[in-house]
Amino acid sequence: MKTLRIFSCLGVVLLLAGSLKAQSGTSALPAGLPPLGPLHGIVSPKIDKFQLANGMQIWLVRRPLFPKVAFTLLLRGGDSQDPVALPGLAQLMAQVATKGTTTRSASKIADAAQLAGGTLAASADVDSVRLEIDSLSDDASAVVALLGDVSQHATFPEDELASAKASAKNQLLGKEGQPHFLAERALLGTFYSGSPYRIVSPSLATLQNAAGDDLKTLYRQTFRPDRALLIAVGQFEPAEMLAQIRKNFNAWKASGPPVPLAGEPQPRADHTVYIVERPRSVQTTMLIAAPAPTLHDPDEPLLQLANTIYGSGFGSRLMKNIREDKGYSYHPGSGIETFRWGAIVQTHEDVRNAVTGASLEQTLLELNGMAAHPPSAQELLNGKRQLLGGVAVALHSRTKLADMLGAFWVQQEPADFLDAQMATVQKATIADVQRVSAKYLAADKMTVVAVGEKSVIQDQLKSSGMKIEDAPNFR
């Protein structure tokens, strides 16, 4: 779930002095500390935007303070373009694309990346494929050449494909022993049955049956300049960077007409508890989720703020209740996952078997409480500080900024989309938070996936009043 949480999963949780006292009821901090400053607006960085004659887009963000450059090459498509019989093929294709070109072997590609001070990473999610590397500025031209080579001349050697399939199969078997993977697969499979949005990894059948020609066909459909964006963030001279990009990408040509991108899925949210049997499990992993607004919806940043108050970080209501007060779960939390054509708001928690039902009951109470007991003025301010502060810190990271801009582009928003989002957060009122909480966070909108030992947890889950079923098999 790579596209998770534009704001609330930036890796930064700002626990401010005012929130510690107001939200948790602990004793006052020492006197004499400086007061918190006013909230400040956040403005998108200056982005120089270009487009080549072949349709490829280029976004350059100059950061001259440190001699490195973060590159991200994004292609619209991803698992939403997979053949129906080969779900997850884009993830396999992305991995093997870096394992050989017409002029470089896998080892030469890896060596070129390492000589530039980075590692070339390839990945795919449901909406995109990406190549990423954070390199030394002095070697930026070599990295641009490497990205141009892989994006246009990948050969998919049979021995590398066989090795990648064997490795991915072992990884899949390992993941199937992890309750969070099982919960995620069941949740997306339930919400998006029949849609590519259900895909979390290549299936075992894909790893057994995918052939080199399948990967080459998907590569030609995906790696095309009219669906590509190259982002560079770091220390460089824009004119020199643009010249290198033109040199290595001007000749890139699309192969045939573009395959239509996936359309909007219809999520199935049916207020049911789905149990994934995990024999002898000593705890239960739960995902409590509902459809959420996409980035295109003006409610999205308001829900991010409501979610921050409800369940994101150590000052949240959920954390205070089921960790600090009751000790049901060590690290519960919540977040919003956004796709191009969908979004999910979800709570995640790992709880002891004996308190599975009680923890779910308290979580549903907290979800309803966001509308029934709207946030105080202090909670609202703390939530804004956490969101705005997290984004402000992320903007100082080359790779996080590139990720943020890439997410906007994949989901078809402008480069300066952050400005409107942050302005909405800054102006949000208690009434705004209460409204979106009632609309999206109410307990009766939630679907639950519980991974654990059915005979131990089933009777406890009945206290939720929700229908209980076995989760379908999504292997």
State the order of secondary-structure elements, H for helix, E for strand. HEEEHHEEHHHHHEHEEHHEEHHHHHEHE
Structural class, judged by helices and strands?
alpha+beta
Number of domains: 2
Name the CATH homologous superfamily of the largest domain.
Answer: Metalloenzyme, LuxS/M16 peptidase-like
Q: Could you characterize the architecture of this molecule?
A:
By secondary structure, the protein is of the alpha+beta class. Helix content is 42%, strand content 17%. It has 2 domains: 17-22 and 264-470, Cytochrome Bc1 Complex, Chain A, domain 1 (2-Layer Sandwich); 48-249, 2-Layer Sandwich (Cytochrome Bc1 Complex, Chain A, domain 1), CATH 3.30.830.10. It has helices at residues 17-24, 89-97, 106-115, 140-153, 158-175, 179-191, 204-209, 212-222, 238-249, 300-311, 317-325, 356-372, 377-394, 398-410, 417-427, 430-440, 454-461; strands at residues 48-51, 57-62, 68-76, 121-124, 128-136, 228-234, 272-277, 283-291, 333-339, 342-352, 447-452, 467-470. Strands 1-2-6-3-5-4 form a 6-stranded mixed beta sheet, with helices on both faces. It has a 6-stranded mixed beta sheet with strand order 9-10-8-11-7-12, sandwiched between helices.
